[in-house]
Amino acid sequence: MNRLRLLCLCLLSLPWLAHAADRPNVILILADDLGWADLGCYGNRFNETPHLDRLARGGMRFTQFYAGPVCSPTRANLQSGQDQARFGITQHIPGHKRPFAKLIDPAVPLQLPLAVETFAERLGAAGYATGYFGKWHLGSEGFGPAQQGWQTAEEMKGNTQPATTKGGELRRTTEVLAQKAVDYLNANKSRPFLLQISHAAVHIPLSTTPELLAKYQAKKPMSGYPSNPAYAGLLEELDRSVGRIVEAVERAGLADKTLILFLSDNGGLEHEQSGRGVTSNKPLRGEKGTLYEGGIRIPAIARWPGRVPAASECKTPAITTDVYPTLLELAGATASNGQPQDGVSLAALLKNPAAALNRDTLYWHLPHYHHSTPASAIRRGDWKLIEFFEDNSLQLFNLRADLAEATNLAAREPARAKELQSALAAWRQQVGARMPVPNPNHDPALATELGKDGGRKKQQ
Length: 460
Known about the structure:
Blueprint: H1 2-13, H2 15-18, E1 25-31, H3 50-57, E2 60-66, H4 71-80, E3 103-104, H5 119-125, E4 129-134, E5 152-155, E6 160-161, E7 171-172, H6 173-187, E8 193-198, H7 210-217, H8 229-251, E9 258-264, H9 293-296, E10 297-303, E11 312-314, E12 318-319, H10 323-331, H11 347-351, E13 361-366, E14 375-380, E15 383-388, E16 394-398, H12 414-431, E17 437-438
Parallel strand pairs: 1-8, 1-9, 2-11, 2-12, 4-5, 4-8
Antiparallel strand pairs: 2-10, 3-17, 6-7, 9-10, 13-14, 14-15, 15-16
Helix pairs in contact: 3-8, 6-8, 7-8
């Protein structure tokens, strides 16, 4: 009896067991290429997102939340809690190449290293069931979510899925993912669970249902916004999917026990390859694949009734790297020994949007040609510096006074620009960031051309 009592006392001394009643279920919903200005709760008057707007009214809406400038880098830093520059995943996998550009950008690894312990692995070790459904884009066979701590995993690509019967209609991915999520939470509602739903929406090529396409074709456009019917329809599909998941949480009586996080993997893509307008990130400058605010600032919503204040707004800068330590703290899970952590926990912010974070600087590294030229960026307080590698030019902005990044203050504030440039260089060295090098085959007339198949040879 004494031994049994001692064992019970030892078990209760473990944080994740002693506070099991306080550990939330976690549902992370990730959109693809969704811009900061696309949701109704962020001011959009053409797109209709009633379920996401309701989620924001019931929780916290972040106005200065950041991601990487393209998808794979953000997915890497989400899963690892480390800046993607540590792995070299600073472009989408496998990346693409411009063989005649001024610089040769570094090759992109084809997967997130298996040695990296994801937040799914850490929460799984703390007793959570872990489920992943949707887009992964961090490695192919042998490097998928099932090899990175996700006990139940099913990858999906694109905005449609094969029919369930021969000759049947294609299924909409948003609906399939919603059903997978509902089934998973119902099967695991008696224990703590971690569920990630990663959508392809609203990534191009755009498609939606005939009903939604007709709805938005008949709707009056929003002034100054592309008001693309296919984009709006696909976004409403995404919104409905979120609504189904939230409804299932509430129907199961899990609302007060469940933290729901909704994020995008990067800023919005403003134009298709054809040139047709997809979305607009205004008043932000730039788009996906750039280090301007339109490329890295994303919509972010957190809801946990009774814990996260309803209808609250958080203006504190945060980044997707912060998700990892946040979830570990809330779940009472321990971090991996020896694995660096570049994010900070947002647990205090989730309770109080005015809480202070022990951090004042954020960094980005995009040494590739995407919708911009190779560059790095740093934000410290209200000041942001972008360093472009082709010509070593600097652009300095005060985001409080100039959200649109319209006025370059580098020449007016040379000391500040130099200070931030030095800090950025020191950070790159610290994380082992890979840099572009001069291209001996540079041809200005062909500089924007892509190499065949993206110009990348598969790496082992």
